Amino acid sequence: MSRVLVIEDDEILNGGLCYNLQKRGITPFSAYTLEEAKGLLSKEAYDLIVLDVNLPDGSGFEFAQDTAALYEIPFIFLTAHNLEDEIIGGYQMGAEDYITKPFRIQITMEKIQAVLRRCGGRHEESCYSCGNLDIDFEKRIVRKSGELLELTPTEFDLLQFFCKNRRKILTKDILLENIWDSRRRFVSEHTLSLNISRLRNKIADDQFDYIKNIYGMGYRWVGAGEAGV
């Protein structure tokens, strides 16, 4: 199920967007300020951000540049301004869409769903290949350069979660909320760090690192895009 963060200080509009998203099977998360949104982003992973350009504690444009870009999440701007230069600037900044108020809610929902389809919002993959890794999520099999890798259940769950969220920075809080041990119990922070270290040692080599530390924030799956362990 796709997860959309709505950042809008108008409570009625925010609630209306979230209500209609939920009706369409999309999980909405609500923030009324940029500070509140930053807190949510540090704890959860999202497929799309819908944000107002003008918020009580800052500019949606600056937020999109500084924060949304850091997490590599697609975004849609909402604005009461219908200024051509502003709209063009929004698209040049990388916005998937730019919606002016007032807008028709059903058309807006269609636009949001189109962006989620285009950006691959949490589609389920049965297999994934990256660098010298071949992963079968259904059979829970991992091969490295053709050789079968032996992973513990927790290590495989970690690998799968990284791969399924490979465009996102995953904080320890997010990982702790989503990873369980073989008895389906939440793991401790120490156990999590130990399992990440063991997983990295098993999948990485001189050519591919796969999991990168993001200083002060968490981890991100970089796949075969960045070399060096």
From TrEMBL:
Modified-residue entries (4-aspartylphosphate), positions: 52
SMART domains named among the record's database cross-references: REC, Trans_reg_C
Known function: May play the central regulatory role in sporulation. It may be an element of the effector pathway responsible for the activation of sporulation genes in response to nutritional stress. Spo0A may act in concert with spo0H (a sigma factor) to control the expression of some genes that are critical to the sporulation process.
GO molecular function, one term: transcription cis-regulatory region binding
Ranges for domain Response regulatory: 3-116
DNA-binding region (UniProt annotation): 125-223
PROSITE patterns noted in UniProt: OMPR_PHOB, RESPONSE_REGULATORY
One BP term from GO: regulation of DNA-templated transcription
Protein's recorded name: Stage 0 sporulation protein A homolog
Entry superkingdom: Bacteria
Organism for this UniProt entry: Eubacterium plexicaudatum ASF492
CDD domains the UniProt entry points to: REC_OmpR, trans_reg_C
InterPro entries recorded: CheY-like_superfamily, OmpR/PhoB-type_DNA-bd, Sig_transdc_resp-reg_receiver, WalR-like, WH-like_DNA-bd_sf
